[in-house]
Specification:
The chain has about 160 residues and is of the alpha/beta class. About 35% of the residues lie in helices and about 20% in strands. It has a seven-stranded mixed sheet. Helix 4 links the parallel strand 2 and strand 3.
């Protein structure tokens, strides 16, 4: 898949409480969660971002709890994918289970600034900073994980395959 949008830059150790504050975890309604995405990291984030935009972050993005609400809120807000230096392992797995594409690329995370226009090819592992005219190569998302994303997450994937 190819995604194109504006980059929203965040730092290191953005935890799940910054992604979706615990005070909103009394619902699993995706639209409601989306309204509060990244609220504690940037209270105006949802009002500024547009569907298709990309989050770019530092090390250990998604650390903290194992709640699935974090990748759900990001995906439901309209963010197309997340690029980071690294992800907390449980967030990494939850993101794919929820159908949110994520890529680890220290070079891209360092080279992309807030507001840059980016293009991300998850199948080829190419991240372009269209504003700066640079490109970064990273490990592509494996085909079986692309299938999870294309299906909308693990549960729709399993249901579509007739495994349940």
């Amino acid at each position: 898949m190819i995604f194109k949008g504006k980059a929203w830059k965040f730092g290191d150790d953005i935890d799940t409480d910054a992604i979706i504050p615990a005070r909103y975890l009394n619902t699993s309604n995706e639209a409601e969660l989306a309204k509060h995405c990244m609220e504690d990291a940037d209270p105006e984030f949802v009002g500024k971002m547009r569907p298709g935009d990309v989050i770019v972050a530092g090390r250990n993005f998604g650390c903290g709890s194992s709640r699935e609400h974090a990748p759900i809120s990001i995906k439901a807000s309209g963010i197309s994918c997340v690029i980071a230096v690294s992800f907390a392992r449980i967030f990494y797995r939850n993101a794919f289970n929820m159908g949110l594409p994520i890529l680890e690329s220290p070079d891209a995370a360092e080279g992309i600034d807030d507001g840059d226009e980016v293009e991300v090819d998850t199948e080829r592992g190419i991240i372009k900073n269209l504003s700066a005219g640079t490109a970064y190569h990273t490990t592509p998302i494996p085909s079986f994980m692309q299938e999870l994303i294309n299906a909308g997450g693990l549960i729709p994937f399993v249901l579509n395959k007739g495994f349940y």
